[in-house]
Design goal:
With about 240 residues, this protein is α/β, with parallel strands linked by helices. It contains 9 helices and 11 strands. The strands form 2 sheets. Strands 4-3-5-2-1-6-10-11-9 form a 9-stranded mixed β-sheet, sandwiched between helices.
């Protein structure tokens, strides 16, 4: 185990996944076997000694932008989306602790009965004690996505990289589900992502990662062992860098 840990490329990382990743083949909500599978992936990396933070979106329950587009006041819609991320975080916590992984759900919106409030130094201490920290409720502010929240927390926690788990194995020049001739990038710069409008994270998140030189690793969350493999220098992914 010590030899494996010494060969790891990153020792502290943030894993960002969408709420939709928890739906499985359903059209809405949580699919417990899918949550369990992702938790197993996280545990396999945690077992290597890697310190892990997580940020999970809320799109499987409620997405603020969609509510706003349907006439709901934007700030209210965004707060509802933040509450959806807390539900997902609690579901992931239950799965991880069922596997014997100690976790803390830390919310940007105080709700003491179900999770801790966000206090940076306390969160860092949880990581040092090898607890998985699941950051919920985004940044606590409307108009900011969970992508931006993930980049913010990665910087605050001094993570060495952001791992963005998606349904495809990297960043493509166009949607590979719609175009057979889509080309996958092995490496791409932050500025190229912004200039070419590549679908990695929103512009605010990319700019924040660029300004703090925080690499983003885009990989397929559907590939068994993919998260662990990349940390060991294997697998298929795209690295977004400066």
């Amino acid at each position: 185990m010590a030899d494996a840990a010494s060969e790891l490329k990153y020792k502290r990382v943030l894993l960002k996944i969408s709420g939709e990743a928890l739906m499985g083949d359903q059209g809405y909500g949580l699919h417990p076997p899918t949550v369990e599978r992702i938790a197993q992936e996280v545990k396999s990396v945690h077992d290597l000694g890697v310190e892990i933070c997580m940020v999970i979106g809320g799109g499987n329950v409620f997405r603020g932008l969609q509510g706003s587009a349907q006439g709901m006041e934007r700030t209210t819609a965004d707060y509802m989306g933040m509450l959806a991320t807390v539900m997902n975080a609690l579901a992931m916590q239950a799965s991880l602790e069922g596997l014997g992984v100690f976790t803390r759900v830390i919310s940007a919106i105080p709700m003491d009965q179900v999770c801790e409030p966000y206090i940076r130094r306390r969160a860092v201490r949880h990581l040092e004690k090898k607890r998985v920290c699941i950051f919920a409720a985004g940044t606590g502010n409307p108009y900011f996505t969970t992508d931006t929240a993930a980049t913010l927390r990665a910087n605050e926690m001094a993570c060495e990289a952001i791992f963005k788990g998606t349904k495809v194995d990297g960043v493509y020049d166009k949607d590979p589900a719609k175009h057979d001739d889509a080309v996958r990038y092995d490496r791409v710069t932050y500025d190229e992502v912004l200039a070419q409008h590549l679908n990695v994270m929103d512009a605010s998140a990319i700019a924040l990662a660029r300004d703090n030189r925080k690499p983003i690793v885009v990989f397929s969350l559907d590939e068994p062992g993919g998260f662990r493999g990349i940390l060991a220098g294997k697998g298929t992914y795209t690295l977004v860098h400066d």
